[in-house]
Design brief:
CATH topology of the largest domain: TIM Barrel
CATH superfamily of the largest domain: Alanine racemase
Low-confidence stretches: none
Distance between the termini: 22 Å
Mean pLDDT: 97
Number of strands: 17
CATH architecture of the largest domain: Alpha-Beta Barrel
Helix content: 25-40%
Shape: globular
Structural class: alpha/beta
Largest sheet: 9 strands, mixed
Radius of gyration: 22 Å
CATH class of the largest domain: Alpha Beta
Length: 372
């Protein structure tokens, strides 16, 4: 089936059909450089999370500016990255089940691949599959540093898993995954700082046992856009997994960045929408609803248009509250800042990359729908 593309290279922005996912290239490129500038002089690696963008073109631009590779959450995301020319991928998640592990091992033949584990049975399964394929696989132990999602408990439980990997015939212990995801959207700077201090204490309890046993821990990886300067300053982390910094979204913009050392990144990702109905003076309807923008972290925000608020979403409609005296004629096109960038990206086939009011490129979202 051929899919309709809302834009062509060289087209004026005003001509781009809607809904479309716009990437403001100037703002995007400033965000890329700003991350590097914020880390100048620090001996720490950057491994951006590709779950935010799902696009090899973006991953390769991040690596061109010094990133050591990217993170993914699923094997299918990693496959899309490797197929797109990305040579170094950490699957910052557990891979469980024979079918997925088989694909993981096949991918490890083609690129530098690492994966996380938090369970002894899973480690045994990875070891057996790697041995059958003649592959030596890098495995990190994920520890629960406060997000209460995946992850072994820090200290002795995590140490035992690291020891199991270290003693395996076909696996190599490659460090600790220590991502404090629940800290990223704590609004106050001090709340986020305290959460990362707790994560660092959990890592230290684990690395102390590894050091005592003579098991090298070459990498502690984690961090996100909301906290990465705290991990960078900790002397505990070796690698930062920032993701949303390239785009930003409504939810991240609600954080307080005061005295955090984290710069204010720009909004570069937008949903391009059209006013499709004006049924009342105080209400208009746009063509970007739930199938055009994720609302799990709140509604999109209308960008650079005063007196208009996006207040409700249904499948194909977005309800706009229009202040008295504001004119919003039928056919008006609007930029919407997504509430949560990651799942919004997953709704589209392409980024419509815009510079100076014109379409400069169309980048495929190669890992769209990559959930396996």
């Amino acid at each position: 089936m051929a899919y309709y593309t809302p834009a062509q290279i060289g087209m004026l922005l005003a001509e781009v059909d809607t809904p479309a996912l716009l990437l403001d290239l100037d703002a995007f490129e400033r965000n890329l450089k700003l991350l590097n500038e914020s880390l100048a002089g620090r001996k720490i690696n950057v491994r951006p999370h590709a779950k935010s963008h799902k696009c090899p073109q973006i991953a390769k631009r991040q690596m061109a500016l010094g990133a050591v590779g990217v993170c993914c959450q699923k094997v299918s995301e990693a496959e899309a990255m490797v197929d797109g020319g990305v040579p170094d991928v950490l699957i910052a998640n557990e891979v469980v089940g024979a079918a997925k592990i088989k694909r993981l091992i096949a991918l490890a033949r083609r690129a530098k691949i690492a994966v996380c584990a938090d369970n002894a049975h899973n480690i045994s399964a990875l070891d057996a599959a790697a041995g059958a394929a003649g592959v030596r696989l890098d495995v990190l132990v994920e520890i629960n540093v406060g997000a209460n999602r995946c992850g072994a408990q820090p200290g002795e439980p995590a140490f035992r898993l690291a020891q199991q990997i270290h003693q395996s015939q076909n696996l190599r212990f490659a460090g600790l995954q220590a991502y404090q995801g629940s800290a990223q959207h704590l609004r106050k700077t001090e709340e986020r700082r305290a959460a990362i201090e707790g994560a660092c204490d959990s890592v230290k309890r684990t690395t102390a046992l590894l050091e005592k046993a003579g098991i090298p821990c070459e990498r502690v990886t984690g961090a996100g856009t909301g906290s990465y300067m705290f991990e960078a300053a900790s002397s505990v982390y070796h690698e930062l997994q920032t993701g949303s910094y390239i785009f930003m979204d409504v939810d991240y913009s609600k954080n307080d960045w005061t005295e955090s050392g984290i710069p204010r990144f720009e909004h570069s990702l937008f949903i391009w929408a059209t006013v499709m109905s004006t049924p009342a003076p105080d209400r208009a309807i746009c063509d970007a609803g739930l199938k055009a923008s994720s609302v799990d972290s709140g509604m999109p925000r209308v960008f650079d248009t005063q007196g208009v608020e996006y207040v409700k979403a249904s499948d194909e409609h977005g309800v706009l509250k229009v202040d008295a005296g504001v004119s919003l004629p039928l056919g008006t096109k609007l930029k919407l800042v997504p509430g949560h960038c990651d799942p919004t990206v997953n709704l589209y086939d392409h980024y419509v990359c815009v510079r100076g009011g014109k379409v400069e490129a169309l980048w495929p979202i190669a890992a769209r729908g990559a959930v396996l």
